């Protein structure tokens, strides 16, 4: 049984893999069928039993195995999982199913509060550029379970590991990768863990069970990265430095300069197009004002930035975005919050309503050397299904310029 199908591919991946093993699969999720339409649409649901919009205690008591989505908070307190424990039903997770089937000495595990996704993707990029068979997985989305048939003794797995995934890797038998990386650690996800000590304990699992002569690389110990990157921001130079150190733990001859061709992760301050330096940046993953401020600060000259911001109203103050307007080349607002942001910004902002109008207006005003940045600082649900759909729409709009 799968507890929590989720929307980022892990639950969907493990469900598809279990069906390939001819398992009898029950999917139970507190969200209803309409909320899970996309992942369900990619599964053979005729072969699954669906219990949606609720959980049933009887399912947890009668299952042979329960795969728990890492998004389920404080699983040690969850009443349904307690029913399973009392009935002697084993609990596992997608990441445990994977690591039980691969060679840990060829695994690189990367965690941290910030930067772990980009660092993992950079590490995988460096290995692939060196003609090393590398697969990127873990918290970054999807599942590597369905690639097991093509993973062999020459394959390296680069796994981004969240604190929740590491909690499950701390269960007996405990597991750490042979090569570990910790970008940085600061208090986070306390709603899931309960307190900071538990969060930090879980982060430490990435190296706690390593054997002698295996390595853990910490971001603050890495030599500075001096190569060129398409990605802006000093934080990406730190990510690059750590990725080089991790990749060179596999092969010391790996050339860190190949990161110049790394295009970034989709929707995370990702440069678009083939021009260098890039003119357009997709930061649709930015759903808080703090993320927008970080994106703007990644560029050396805010006065050359045309920013598109706004979206679904989560009820948080967007004043920090409005306050940026006097420092930017232009601020163009969209969505439910667009008028409010523009009103608070005064004459320095334009309320455009829709993304296509904002893109068109910004490009009309761009000068040579300017950049157009989509970093909404808001969720996307007023006009798009999710941040990914919003980012794809932005990429399509700027593709002809």
Characterise the protein shown here.
By secondary structure, the protein is an alpha/beta fold. It has 3 domains: 2-92, NAD(P)-binding Rossmann-like Domain (Rossmann fold, 3-Layer(aba) Sandwich); 96-261, UDP-N-acetylmuramoyl-L-alanine:D-glutamate ligase; 270-398, Protein-Tyrosine Phosphatase, Chain A (Alpha-Beta Complex). The chain contains 15 helices and 16 strands. It has helices at residues 10-20, 37-41, 57-62, 79-86, 94-99, 116-129, 163-169, 190-193, 196-208, 234-250, 289-297, 319-322, 338-345, 355-365, 387-398, and strands at residues 2-3, 25-29, 48-52, 66-68, 91-92, 107-111, 134-138, 156-160, 179-182, 215-218, 270-272, 280-282, 305-309, 330-334, 349-353, 371-374. The strands form 3 sheets. A 6-stranded mixed sheet has the order 11-12-16-13-14-15, with helices on both faces. The N and C termini lie far apart (48 Å).
């Amino acid at each position: 049984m799968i507890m929590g199908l989720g929307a980022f591919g892990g639950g969907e991946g493990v469900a598809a893999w279990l069906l390939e093993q001819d398992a009898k699969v029950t999917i139970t999720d507190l969200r209803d069928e309409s909320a899970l339409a996309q992942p369900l649409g990619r599964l053979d649901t005729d072969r699954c039993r669906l219990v949606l919009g609720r959980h049933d205690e009887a399912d947890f008591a009668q299952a042979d195995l329960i795969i728990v989505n890492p998004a389920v908070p404080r699983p040690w307190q969850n009443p349904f999982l307690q029913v399973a424990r009392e009935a002697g039903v084993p609990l596992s997770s997608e990441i445990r199913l994977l690591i039980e089937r691969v060679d840990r000495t060829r695994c690189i595990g990367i965690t941290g509060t910030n930067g772990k996704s980009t660092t993992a993707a950079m590490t995988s990029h460096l290995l692939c550029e060196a003609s090393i068979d590398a697969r990127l997985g873990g918290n970054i989305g999807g599942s590597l379970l369905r690639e097991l048939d093509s993973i062999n003794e020459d394959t390296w797995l680069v796994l981004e590991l969240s604190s929740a995934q590491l909690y499950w890797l701390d269960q007996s038998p405990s597991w750490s990768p042979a090569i570990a990386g910790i970008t940085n650690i600061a208090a986070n996800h306390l709603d899931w863990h309960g307190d900071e000590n538990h969060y930090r304990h879980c982060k430490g699992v990435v190296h706690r069970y390593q054997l002698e002569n295996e390595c853990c690389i910490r971001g603050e110990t890495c030599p500075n990265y001096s190569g060129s990157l398409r990605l802006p921001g000093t934080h990406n130079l730190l990510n690059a430095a750590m990725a080089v150190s991790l990749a060179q733990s596999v092969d010391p001859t790996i050339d860190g300069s190949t990161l110049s061709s790394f295009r970034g992760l989709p929707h995370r301050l990702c440069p678009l197009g083939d021009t260098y330096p890039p003119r357009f940046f997709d930061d649709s993953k930015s759903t808080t004002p703090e993320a927008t401020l970080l994106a703007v600060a990644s560029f050396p000259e805010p006065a050359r930035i045309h920013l598109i911001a706004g979206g679904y109203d989560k009820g948080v103050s967007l004043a920090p975005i409005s306050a940026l307007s006097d420092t930017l080349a232009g601020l163009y607002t969209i969505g439910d919050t667009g008028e409010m942001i523009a009103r608070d910004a005064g004459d320095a902002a334009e309320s455009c309503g829709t993304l296509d109008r904002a893109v068109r207006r910004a490009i009309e005003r761009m000068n040579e050397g300017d950049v157009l940045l989509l970093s909404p600082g808001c969720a996307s649900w007023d006009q798009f299904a999710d941040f990914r759909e919003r980012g794809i729409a932005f990429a399509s709009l700027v593709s002809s310029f």
